[in-house]
């Protein structure tokens, strides 16, 4: 007699998984490898930026007070006592009506409190001496890039868990992080199960299909910042699957399988969890696709039995695997980010369960809109290519009309959300 599975809600399923929040680990990597990784510590300013007052323009550093009486009819002339480019420092201190010719980025001379742009000064020479003349007053602090105006020493600039983007790379370099503390990539083991599976290079034969899930999941793992540990594909053979899965567990932080979790005669994952002594957290979720997604834990290590059906597998990964992995990458917003959107076509399919429709979301005239990215069946592969979101259609008996407000989960967004359920 077939065991009856009782579905739990998506939110409850995610909660059960997140109870096994695994603490991520830190490693230090050279800054030139840090792009695309996740900070494992807050990024703190190790100095003021800039750490000295500097010129933001090419021009002349002067004491503003000396320019106060300058006008078209009363030009004021300054003696130019030195010339400095970026990286150079003058030892001279400005006295009244003296100027230092200064280039963008150079440190302001002592006594100077403003910079006259080259375009606003007229230079001249007399008896081997250099002079420059202005015809308007300049205010104290005009054209000075002040110490600490960009960042103050000790300030927390970026929180741990942030995706290291090009801007963060610039910050890391600014503050001297030659080695960057990043989250170690969680090692995610992956098996595809199914006697029907061919390798990518194999020719098609009746009854068999090419294994596409492995490549899809591997890319999903990489997209969220994990490391793929691919163990290959397994035939639907209980002992072979059991031994392979058992042996792989110690090599990874998390183990994923695809296929073999439903109620078919060759769906061995439930029996394998039992023989391993793993505790099944759930084996049925009130959602489509991915209702058969099964998650088990063994000594605190999570085993995700994702569906074999490609779209169901994809959705199960994004809802359940993603947040655990992003948590290990120190994110405080590990779930997919959720936004409100307008459904742009009718979706007549009725459904008792919450449905996650692979969709394309786009902005038009400031409004997010969404359309399914293809056929909505869980065995479908092609709708995944154009999907940048999952439209959430609540369970109910009716379909949905064009113009309905719907929520979407964004697949390509780095920000994430704290809890979308
Ligand atoms: N009597 C019932 N039958 C099914 C139920 C049910 O509740 N009662 N649930 C259906 C639903 S919903 C889903 S989803 C599937 C889940 O099946 P499994 O997770 O056990 O996966 P398999 O049976 O191994 O394969 C399903 C399907 O996917 C293809 N597949 C498998 N692996 C791959 C791969 N690596 N790449 C591409 N395609 C793959 C496989 O050939 C099958 O067509 O069960 C329903 N049945
Ligand atoms: O549980 Mo299945 O994934 O809906 O097609
Ligand atoms: Mg099956």
From TrEMBL:
<keyword id="KW-0500">Molybdenum</keyword>
<dbReference type="InterPro" id="IPR005110">
    <property type="entry name" value="MoeA_linker/N"/>
</dbReference>
<keyword id="KW-0479">Metal-binding</keyword>
<dbReference type="GO" id="GO:0005829">
    <property type="term" value="C:cytosol"/>
</dbReference>
<dbReference type="GO" id="GO:0006777">
    <property type="term" value="P:Mo-molybdopterin cofactor biosynthetic process"/>
</dbReference>
<dbReference type="Pfam" id="PF03454">
    <property type="entry name" value="MoeA_C"/>
</dbReference>
<dbReference type="InterPro" id="IPR001453">
    <property type="entry name" value="MoaB/Mog_dom"/>
</dbReference>
<dbReference type="Pfam" id="PF03453">
    <property type="entry name" value="MoeA_N"/>
</dbReference>
<keyword id="KW-0808">Transferase</keyword>
<dbReference type="Pfam" id="PF00994">
    <property type="entry name" value="MoCF_biosynth"/>
</dbReference>
<comment type="pathway">
    <text>Cofactor biosynthesis; molybdopterin biosynthesis.</text>
</comment>
<dbReference type="InterPro" id="IPR036135">
    <property type="entry name" value="MoeA_linker/N_sf"/>
</dbReference>
<dbReference type="GO" id="GO:0061599">
    <property type="term" value="F:molybdopterin molybdotransferase activity"/>
</dbReference>
<keyword id="KW-0460">Magnesium</keyword>
<dbReference type="GO" id="GO:0046872">
    <property type="term" value="F:metal ion binding"/>
</dbReference>
<comment type="similarity">
    <text>Belongs to the MoeA family.</text>
</comment>
<dbReference type="InterPro" id="IPR005111">
    <property type="entry name" value="MoeA_C_domain_IV"/>
</dbReference>
<dbReference type="InterPro" id="IPR036688">
    <property type="entry name" value="MoeA_C_domain_IV_sf"/>
</dbReference>
<keyword id="KW-0501">Molybdenum cofactor biosynthesis</keyword>
<dbReference type="InterPro" id="IPR038987">
    <property type="entry name" value="MoeA-like"/>
</dbReference>
<dbReference type="InterPro" id="IPR036425">
    <property type="entry name" value="MoaB/Mog-like_dom_sf"/>
</dbReference>
<protein>
    <recommendedName>
        <fullName>Molybdopterin molybdenumtransferase</fullName>
        <ecNumber>2.10.1.1</ecNumber>
    </recommendedName>
</protein>
<feature type="domain" description="MoaB/Mog">
    <location>
        <begin position="189"/>
        <end position="327"/>
    </location>
</feature>
<comment type="function">
    <text>Catalyzes the insertion of molybdate into adenylated molybdopterin with the concomitant release of AMP.</text>
</comment>
């Amino acid at each position: 007699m077939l065991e009856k599975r009782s579905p739990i809600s998506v939110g409850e399923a995610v909660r059960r998984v997140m109870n096994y929040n695994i603490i991520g680990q830190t490693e230090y990597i050279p800054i030139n490898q840090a792009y695309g990784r996740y900070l494992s510590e807050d990024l703190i300013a190790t100095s003021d930026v800039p750490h000295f007052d500097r010129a933001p323009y090419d021009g002349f550093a002067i004491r503003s007070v000396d320019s106060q009486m300058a006008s078209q009819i009363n030009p004021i002339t300054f003696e130019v006592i030195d010339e400095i480019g970026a990286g150079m420092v003058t030892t001279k201190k400005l006295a009244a009506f003296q100027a230092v010719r200064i280039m963008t980025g150079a440190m302001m001379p002592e006594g100077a409190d403003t910079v006259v742009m080259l375009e606003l000064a007229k230079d001249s020479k007399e008896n081997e001496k250099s002079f420059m003349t202005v015809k308007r007053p300049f205010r104290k602090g005009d054209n000075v890039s002040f110490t600490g105006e960009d960042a103050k020493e000790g300030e927390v600039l970026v929180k741990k868990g942030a995706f290291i983007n090009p801007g963060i790379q610039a910050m890391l370099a600014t503050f001297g992080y030659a080695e960057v503390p990043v989250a170690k990539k969680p090692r995610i083991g992956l098996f595809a199960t199914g006697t029907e599976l061919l390798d990518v290079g194999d020719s098609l034969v009746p009854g068999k299909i090419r294994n596409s899930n492995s490549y899809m999941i591997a890319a999903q793992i990489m997209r969220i910042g994990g490391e793929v540990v691919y163990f290959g594909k397994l035939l639907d053979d209980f002992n072979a699957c059991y031994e392979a899965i058992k042996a792989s567990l110690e090599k990874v932080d998390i183990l994923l399988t695809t296929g073999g979790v439903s109620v078919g005669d060759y769906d061995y994952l439930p029996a394998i969890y039992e023989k391993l002594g793993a505790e099944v957290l759930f084996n049925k979720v009130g959602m489509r696709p991915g209702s058969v997604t099964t998650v088990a834990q063994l000594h605190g290590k999570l085993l995700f039995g994702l569906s074999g059906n490609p779209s169901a597998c994809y959705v199960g990964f994004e809802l359940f695997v993603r947040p655990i992995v992003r948590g290990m990458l120190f994110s405080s917003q590990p779930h997919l980010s959720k936004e409100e959107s307008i459904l742009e076509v009718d979706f007549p399919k009725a459904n008792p369960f919450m449905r996650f429709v692979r969709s394309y979301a786009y902005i038009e005239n400031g409004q997010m809109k969404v359309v399914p990215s293809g056929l909505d069946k869980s065995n479908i592969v092609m709708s995944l290519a154009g999907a940048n979101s999952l439209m959430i259609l609540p369970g109910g008996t009716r379909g949905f009309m064009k113009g309905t407000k719907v929520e979407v989960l964004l697949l390509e967004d780095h920000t994430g959300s704290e809890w979308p359920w």
